[in-house]
Amino acid sequence: MQQRMDISQAAPQGYQAVIGLEKYVRANVDPTLLHLIKLRASVVNGCAFCVDMHSTEALKDGEQGRRLFAVSAWRESPFFSEVERAALELTDEVTALGEHGVTDQVWAAAQDAFSDKELADIILAISTINVWNRVAVSTHLQPPAL
To answer: Which residues belong to any copy of the Carboxymuconolactone decarboxylase-like domain (predicted)?
Structure first.
């Protein structure tokens, strides 16, 4: 598969706007939680570039490989805290909005796990990785060769 377009070159101002969101979430969301959110949304969206990038970054930052592998089956995995589970469930529902939106049950669990500010920042993090996933998948952005 060949990359179709480099959006950073075709629409540099738009690309920089997304970079601004990325900088915000990196500064405001716990790094471990952010890695899990980015990886989970990327798995759900089938974004090979982002799965590669975010798993590689998480490993560099000290995350355990077993937890990263388990993100694809997090519901059945014992490796995640209740707070991480709330974030992963919210990630699944925000990423797949067309199926049923965010259910009241998932929202309540997220409200129990996070302050309003933390929850707002997590929603922005989920939204941002979904933008990146859509850019990468639609343009056929490929991970670097092994």
So the answer is: 15-93
Domain containing 44 equals: 13-139
**Alpha-carbon torsion angle 10, 11, 17, 23, nearest 10:** 10
Q: Dihedral through CA 88, CA 91, CA 96, CA 97, nearest 10?
A: 130
Answer whether residue 8 is part of any domain. no
Q: Is residue 23 part of a domain?
A: yes
Cβ–Cβ under 8 Å, residues 130 and 45: yes
Q: How many domains does the chain have?
A: 1
**Which tokens in the block code for residue 132?**
């990146």
Answer yes or no: are the C-beta atoms of 91 and 41 closer than 8 Å. yes
pLDDT of residue 146: 87
Helix or strand holding residue 111 (H, E)? helix 104-113
Tens of pLDDT, residues 58-108: 999 999 999 999 999 999 999 999 999 999 999 999 999 888 899 999 999
Q: Is residue 111 part of a domain?
A: yes
Contact between residue 1 and residue 139 where contact means Cβ atoms under 8 Å apart: no
7 lies in some domain: no
Residue in the block written with tokens 């101002």: 13
